[in-house]
Amino acid sequence: MTGERRGTRELRREPGSPLWQQLLELLRQRLDNDEFTAGFPGELALVEEYQVSRHTVRAAMQVLREEGLVIAGRGRPPRQAEPVEIARRLGALYSLYESVRGLGLEQRSVIRCLEVQRDAVVAARLGLGEDTPLVHLERLRLAGDEPLALDRVWLPKVLAAPLLDADFSRTSLYELYARLCGVVLTDGREQILPVLPTPAEHRLLGGPRDTAAFSIQRLGQAKGRPVEWRHTLVRGDRFALTTAPAGTGGYRLELLSPTRGGDARS
Amino acid sequence: MTGERRGTRELRREPGSPLWQQLLELLRQRLDNDEFTAGFPGELALVEEYQVSRHTVRAAMQVLREEGLVIAGRGRPPRQAEPVEIARRLGALYSLYESVRGLGLEQRSVIRCLEVQRDAVVAARLGLGEDTPLVHLERLRLAGDEPLALDRVWLPKVLAAPLLDADFSRTSLYELYARLCGVVLTDGREQILPVLPTPAEHRLLGGPRDTAAFSIQRLGQAKGRPVEWRHTLVRGDRFALTTAPAGTGGYRLELLSPTRGGDARS
DNA sequence: CAGTGGTCTAGACCACCGA
DNA sequence: CGGTGGTCTAGACCACTGC
Question: Is the residue at A221 inside a domain?
Answer without folding.
Answer: yes
